[in-house]
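Fold this sequence, please.
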Amino acid sequence: MVAFGKKLKESQIQEWQGYYINYKFLKKKVNRYAQQLEVGAQDHRYVLKDFSRMLDSQIEKIVLFLLEQQGQLASRLSDLREQHDEILQQTDGAKISELQEAYRRVGHDLLRLLFFVEMNATGLRKILKKFDKRFGYRFTNYYVKTRANHPYSQLRQVFKHVGIGAVVGAISRNLADLQDHQGNYVSIYDQPALSHPDPVVHSIKAAVNRLSNSTNFLEFLGKHAFIMQDDLPTPSEEDVAEERYHFMSLLLNLVNTFLYMVNTYIIVPTADDYSLSLGAAATVCGVVIGSMAVAQVFSSVYFSAWSNRSYLRPLIFSSVVLLIGNTLYALAYDLNSIAVLLVGRLFCGLGSARAVNRRYISDCVPHKLRMQASAGFVSASALGMACGPALACLFQTDFKVYKLTFNEDTLPGWVMALSWLFYLLWLWICFREPPQKIKENILPQEAHSGSSVNYAVENGYTQPLLLNMEAKQQGQNEDEEYDDGEEDSCEKAPKPVTSIVSAYRLLTPSVKVQLFVYFMLKYAMEILLAEASVITAYYFIWSTSSVAIFLACLGLTVLPVNIVVGTYISNMFEERQVLLASEIMVLIGILLSFHIGIPYSVPQYVGSALITFVSAEVLEGVNLSLLSRVMSSRLSRGTYNGGLLSTEAGTLARVIADGTITLSGYLGVSRLLNTTLVPSLFICISSIIATCFTYNSLY
């Protein structure tokens, strides 16, 4: 069987040799481009255009061959369909077995075709990486996005697998009819749970899953969460991820994200009244709200480091600290102590486990589910942001139990303390600590690599043929030895940085600008949300319920806006175009918010707030998507990862914004609005200028 598999593989390589992507030719072109640019013989625009044209030609060759092979498979399946109908009428067991073997042979050939596609897809990815590394561009992102989203793109035809999916469906349906349901004929479409996939079908589906790549709403939300996505994983990596994955543990991480966002925003509508009831100024609400962000600056670091060793323990610690913090927040009213109030909010910030939530999704969720989990992370955050203020408007009551007061100021603390208590019990009972990662080299030896296709069909799983094939080709091409070794090293998991200084050194100008943009949008949003209760009470005499409803409505715009951007706008425009347009819209919203001359009206405030908030939400999604592309792969793992850096930038923005509100309060409530908007205006203009300077480096 080993000899047969090796002979089969070699014959496939010889037969299909002319249809593989010409990696050697493209690599030489990259080197020639570099020489031409050094001497000034060509400009960057020509290089990008010419290299795109060559890649289009290579991919067209692959796709046309792929369609030809699919047509041959479809013709064989059509012939088998006729035999299928005849044999089922005769109910001949021997012929049914022969027909099953015939379908398996078609599946075997389809699996070979999928391996062919995977080899070309990985070769394409490697040459794109080489181009980016040699010239410092983000050409990969530009090329894949423009080609994958165009309706006539050959690249999309490869990665969407429309024709392959139909062939897989025909094979799996007919094998299911012939396998376990003779005389019953349960359809896989009616009751898929009753069908037991044949090993060859399982292998085909596994190969298709490794190749799957789409740009849709889930991918946009996943990038919004800034959980950095890896390249196509190896089977060993997927096995480890499958072993570490536990649905209930993932759900508990998402619930933690939701509750923390509720905890953050539930006090916003009543923070000014609470401050007044304790004898402080209304603008002290900035300190009350911001103290949680101050503590989060430090908690993000130690939670990120802690998640290197455990997930359960930091989540337990987070829940306990939040339980204590919310209890102190509620008790501050009866103790008549602003200090206790602030300590309670500091404890809440120290319990911020969002770094753990992100890390769990990145490390413990299989690649095929990671985008959905990332989208769930963003959705949970958005839902919590909307539910926090909405819950606050329900607490319009005032009563005492013994010496404890329950009113609109203290109930947010009591309700969240109870919520974290229930969550802590649920966490202790249902969370499963994933096993530590074990690095294994499960690649088959060279002597057995030839039988991997056949062995996969017989045993129900696939082996990575490409790595062995490339190793063999590498030995045959001595002039490529150095470069190929360099490419192989790029494919390995990057070594994470070990200090904040090392992380900072990896930040390119483009990354720094995008982090500044993230700082700007978080600053503008925090100014809008944190001072909403004070501004609306001063200008419009809104009640707590009115402020809560207004903030809840703003929060409810997050998901619809992301759906529109992720499904439509991101497919119509480049992300850098959406980024710049969103920054300009934030600027317009800030300008419209100023109170100059005419009386300040509700339509002006609500309209400007809506423009600012929605534009900032669009900007956040696009900004984090670009960050995930331009940031070094070394920042995708370890304590000082890209998610931590973006979290720190956003948290620092919130701290400064809340401090700005409190300091501006000393000038009087009448000047609060314009005084807090001036820094927002300056920072927004600065971010637009910085974006324009780095615009060409954003792909």
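The chain has two domains: 3-183+196-226, 249-432+499-694. Residues 44-90 form the longest helix (47 residues).
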